[in-house]
Amino acid sequence: MRTGDLEKMNAAVMRRTTVADLPQSAGLPAVLVTCLDARTDPAHLFGIGPGAAAVIRNVGGRVTDEVITQLGALAGLGTTLIGPDVRLDVGVIHHTMCGAMMLADTGIRAQVADSGRVDGDAIAALGITDPVETVRADVAKLVASGLPDGITVSGYVYDTAAGTIRQVVDNHTLGT
Known about the structure:
The chain is of the alpha/beta class. The protein has helices at about 5-15, 40-45, 65-80, 105-115, 120-125, 130-145; strands spanning about 30-35, 55-60, 90-95, 150-160, 165-175.
C-alpha cells in the first residue's frame, strides 16, 4: 500500500458500502492502546469491526503523555456528548518480538535517533525490554496520571508467535 493510492482504495470500499453503514463514533467505552506493528491490529486480533473500540496506536503501544491527553479528551467527550455515566475501559497491549525492543539498546537508539532526526532521549521512553514489565509500568502510569475517576485500565501481552493474548495486569478502576 502507498498513500498515493488512498483515494483509489477508498473509492473501491465505497462501491461495497456506504458512509451510512459506518458508526458515527468509536464504540466507547472500549479503548485499546497498542503497537502500530501490523501483527497487533485489533481488527485482526479480536475480530472487531469499525467502531467497536477506539484504538490508539504508536511505537510499542507505550503510554506516553500524548496518550494520556488523548484518553482524557476521550473521557471528556464521552461524558459531554453521551452522558455522565460513560466510563472508559482501557486495555494496554504490548507484544513479544516488538521492534521497540531495539530502542532499549543505546547504540541502536542513537542510530535510530540520528537517521530519524529525533531526540534520542525522547525515544528512549518507547524502548521495551520485557513486554510484561512495560505493560505493568504503563498501566501504573495511567493509574497515577490524574485521569478522571471511574476509568478502568488493564494490561495484556500478545504473543506474536503463538497468536494468543494474556492479561498480565488485572482491571483497576481509577479513584477506587
